[in-house]
Amino acid sequence: MSLRFYTSLGCVFFLLAGCATTPETTESDVSFQEVESLKPKIEPVDQVNPANIPDVEPVNVQAVSHSSVVKSYQRALKLIADPAIKARIERRLAGLAMVESEELQVQGETFEQQKLAMSKFDSTIQAYKKLLRDYPDNPDNDTTYYQLAKAYGLKGNLEASDKLLETLLEKYPNSPLASEAYYRRAEFFYSNKQYPQAGVAYEQVVKRKDNPKMVVNARFMLAWALFKQADYEASLDEFTALLDHLAPSKEVYQSLTKNQKALIEDSFRAMSYAFGYLEGGKSVVQYYEKVGERHYESLVFSSLGLLYQSKERYQDAADVYLAYVKRHPLAADSPEVFARVIKVYELGRFPSVIIPAKAQYATDYGLSSRWYTAQVDAVSPKHTQRLKEYMGQLASYFHTRGQKAKKNSQEQKEYFNTAIGWYNGYIKDFPKEPDVADKYHRVGDVYTLLGDSENASFAYSKAAYDYPDYDIEKRSAAGYAAVVAFQRIAEQSKLESDVRTKIEQSLKYADVFGNDSRSIGVLVDASESLLKLNEYEPARDIARKVIVKLIETGKSEYVVDQSWKSLKWQPYSSRKNRRASWVVVGHASFELADYPQAENGYFQALRLMKKNHQLYPSLRQRLAISIYRQGEALAKENKNQEALNHFERVLVTVPEADIKIQTQYDIIAQHLILKQWTPAIAKLNAFRKTYPKHKLSEGIRDKLIYAYEQSEQWSNAANELTAMANDEKSDQEQRRKALFQAATYYEQGDKIPQAIDRYRSYAHGYPAPFIVNLETQHKLAELYKALKETNKRKFWLKKIIENDKNAGPERTERSVYLAAAASYELAEDDWQAFKKAKLTLPLGKSIKRKQSAMQTVIKKYTAVADYGVSEFSTASTHRIADAYYRMSKDLMNSERPKGLDELELEQYDILLEEQAYPFEETSIEVYETNIARTVDGIYDDWVKESYKRLAKIMPARYAKDEQVEGYADVIQ
């Protein structure tokens, strides 16, 4: 051992006034991490020692010129003769020597310096011995003994020091230095493990009470001395007395110095050892039941618990803490102590009891507990934080256990319901905590796993929208989960109100979290749902919003706000959502009769769709209808060319359209309206050929006839009408009209044989209506006239006359007129025969023939006149008069027999004149009958002609200048 070691050991007894600190200082609220790092070990009794505490008032040596002071005293000593004064001077010099020795000892760093200090102590010792020899009866010798003992102690001769202190106490039992001498002796005994002697000495210091500060240290060391003697209960009493003295209340404890607190804490440490050597926590409870409660009990329990922890006796540590909690359930520090129970369970790896312990903590010290009610004004933030931590851990624990349990089992439901209870308890107790949003989020997850979509939707919505400081990505996830929950509710209930709620939440989500890629799918679903509810305008608006938002370029990355991470999009997902949105635009626009937008929606959707997609065929049909409806609307506005363009687009865009036939039919209709006869006719024929049995083909013939009529293709029109007339499926009346019209169009198309054929068929086949049949016969007569087929013409003229005659009540002015015209025409033939009949020799025979022909003409024209048709009556009357007139003229101009002399010839002429005169007279009468019709306002060409005849026959009477128009005798 070095010299410095021994001298330093001596310094301990005189520079230290007692125990102050310990290397193993433990605060009452020491953290569990600190406990783990310290891990103190419980030592055998003889190895458990107190820590040394420095003097309360350490020596403060003022820096002075030491040598000058010594020299001054030495000079004074030589000059003074008074023994008392000399004694004080020598004592002062000895004291200065002690100071110098101590300084050398403290400041010495090398062996030589320490050796010098030891030699100085020798000089100091000799100085004090000399004082005792020279002044044995000096009343201050108690101080001299004390200083001498100190010098021996500082030099390292502890036994010599102790002997001197013993002498001091024997000679000066009432010395002011007695308590300190007892204390120094106790320290000497204690260091030599003479614990009973040390205890007696410490006890003397305590009893004297003349030095309060030393009494505290002495009681502390007395308790340790008793502890070393294994008298644990006595030791505990002394420690308790010390604690009661130093810290009679919590308030006093808070005001103690650092060294005083260290002394108290070392006391707790010693007491923990003592209780540990007894019966642990049970002993603590029994002890305080005996001595009464103390405000520092929890520190005692905690110290013992920490001691057990250091030895890894975790269950014992937990039992100690639980003993305190049980003893003081409503104490302010009860939660803190109980928390240590949980900590030691964690240190000891007792998982089966950790969760129940945390649950008990949260229950016993929660905001609804008796403890919290009692301590509400003194609850520490640390406790609140721990309570939040435990409740969160409990919720997560049961949440996880539920996820690991068998799906849909009773066990899983119990775990989940317990987790919900803790989550909701946390939310209720700490509504303003930043992590409440996360708790709502998690409780929503649990409700989802339980299939409780209603509660899940509420929890998710709270997390998503009520806590703006919650992590944006988590908020978005919660909002999306809420939408999914609302969707499940709607799917299960099938109620419109739930569907509308889902839509409302979807739109809210997309509005708040528009940068989240999931908002696209949410909006798509919302638009589809609105479409199903017939909310077409909002459905389309949302779908359009999606389309604008989606990536039109087909890239897979969607750039978002800087506060968000880049979101990777699956190209298919983008394509799928665009396609779905276009479908909504198409359907909504279609229902809103906005067919241009519907067409665009369907077109865009189909562009993003493979042909084998299930919607592909139906959307193609919808596309066709959308285009068709545009044409239909334009047609109603009489914008026929534009309508036609749209109808034609249907066939080009969707050749397989279900409405293809209807569209082709409408195209034809537009051609007809636009008078585009050539394409109309071509398409009508093609339509009928392609769809011969289609119901629309039934109207093709009518439209073809119309087109042919309008384009003046009379023969083609007639062909269609003929086919109609021959169609047994057609209405009989329709067939009748068609046949008549066919004949008419053949005639207009200069297809006379076909026209005659159709007229003839009509005349024979349709006697009714009578007048039409009669007109048909008239038409046949006219056509045969044009063909110069006289006999056939006469046949139909006779038919006209016959039919009129037999018409009965159906007879009309027209039928009479046609019959009169026919009769007149037939009479005209007889008139021509009459005119051609010549009077030749023999005159008798020729006159007879001529007269017969004249009678026929008169009969025929008389019959015509009987019809009462003025046009033909005047003509017939004129012809009758003419017949008489011509008979008269022909007689006078007839051939004369040959061989007659002049007289015979004259007589012959007279005879002829006699024969001709009656005829002439009769003709005048008939002519006059004709012109008499002027009285009735009839003055036609034939009347005029009768006037002309009369003017020739009777010029004197009728050859006057009359203001009448000339009229050429066109009838010869």
3D architecture notes:
By secondary structure, this protein is an all-alpha fold. Among the domains are: 1-24 and 40-45 and 64-175, Alpha Horseshoe (Serine Threonine Protein Phosphatase 5, Tetratricopeptide repeat); 187-230, no CATH class; 231-348, no CATH class; 350-430, no CATH class; 838-958. Strands 1-2 form a two-stranded antiparallel ribbon. Strand 1 and strand 2 (567-568) form a beta hairpin. Helix 23 runs antiparallel to helix 24 and helix 24 (472-493) packs antiparallel against helix 25 (496-512). It is rod-shaped and about 250 Å long. The N and C termini lie far apart (186 Å).
What's a quick, concise take on this entry?
With 972 residues, the protein is mostly helical.
Structural class: mainly alpha
**What profile does the largest beta sheet have?**
2 strands, antiparallel
Query: Could you estimate the helical fraction of the residues in percent?
Result: over 70%
Outline: rod-shaped
Distance between the termini: 186 Å
Q: How are the strands of the biggest sheet laid out side by side?
A: 1-2
Measured by DSSP, the beta-strand proportion falls in under 5%
The count of β-strands is 2
Q: Output the number of helix runs.
A: 45
Q: Are there runs of 5+ residues with pLDDT below 50, and where?
A: 1-46, 52-63, 553-572, 962-972
- Structural Rg: 73 Å
CATH topology of one domain, what is it called?
A: Serine Threonine Protein Phosphatase 5, Tetratricopeptide repeat
Average pLDDT figure: 85
| CATH architecture level-2 label of one domain | Alpha Horseshoe
CATH class value of one domain: Mainly Alpha
Organism: Litoribrevibacter albus
Keywords: Signal, TPR repeat
Protein name: Tetratricopeptide repeat protein
